[in-house]
Amino acid sequence: MHASIDNFQFCEQELKKIDPIGHFSALTAHKQTRPSLMVLLAFIATIRRIPGQVSSIEMRQIRLQWWRENLTDNKASFSTGCGLANIGPLASSLKQVQKQFSLPDDLLIAFIDAYDISKVADSPTQDAYFEYSWNAYSIPLSLACQILIRDQNQDAFTSLLKSAGMAICLAEDLRNWPQQMQDQRKGLPLDLSSHQQQSTQETKKRNDHPSMQATMNELCDIALENNKHALTLLKDLKKNGFAEAIPAFLPLALVPKIIKARKKSPDEAIILSKWRSFLSIGYMAYRL
Hints:
Blueprint: H1 2-18, H2 20-26, H3 34-53, H4 57-71, H5 89-100, H6 105-113, H7 126-148, H8 154-182, H9 210-239, H10 255-264, H11 274-287
Helix pairs in contact: 1-2, 1-3, 1-5, 2-11, 3-5, 3-7, 4-6, 6-7, 7-8, 8-9, 8-10, 9-10
């Protein structure tokens, strides 16, 4: 028992270090589910860091495959000296949370696959981007809800997960796209825009091209529309007795700030201060 407590404490500290925004959001969760939520969020943050943290494509795939194999290993035990006791505090804690809350293997694997560069298009089509946003952002939201709410109505959550996932995903890609293009990682989903004739190669140039600016503005508007729709659905969900799910969706609070910054500076790096992010998340939690 003490080992499990220590592992969960490690996960909280790891989350606070690599994703302070996620850690702050998780603090609003009920104390009974908060540790498990932090374990999940620490895992999510760890996977999302891999493409930018590991320069070698082969090493990225090795790390992702390590997670796939451990999450689908249902034979190992937690006994000292063997099995899950030796895979590290984060992976061991995640396996415990996975078992306790019946988190599906296929959803966890689909999330991991979203960060496998060999399976992500350079400039994704509309259908491909919808699939990517679902796997990379909607699935983590769904898993968080499964921890926060045991008896959730899946139908009531589906539309919210789609809109929230798309809003957060598009905002993050708009925030990070200059660096992603520089590192030759996934580009923007130009197919979502009516200005889709703009080529991926052209996006690597400075954004003083009128067509690219129009494309950027349209993608920003799509993110804001999805964010607004998600917030409306989230309020309805709270009225129906699912207020415990709110901590999972607090990243929506940052979408408008990211979009505002991107519209103001189409090709510059966007850095939101921690205190502004904390303030936005706290305000959203208070309002809801």
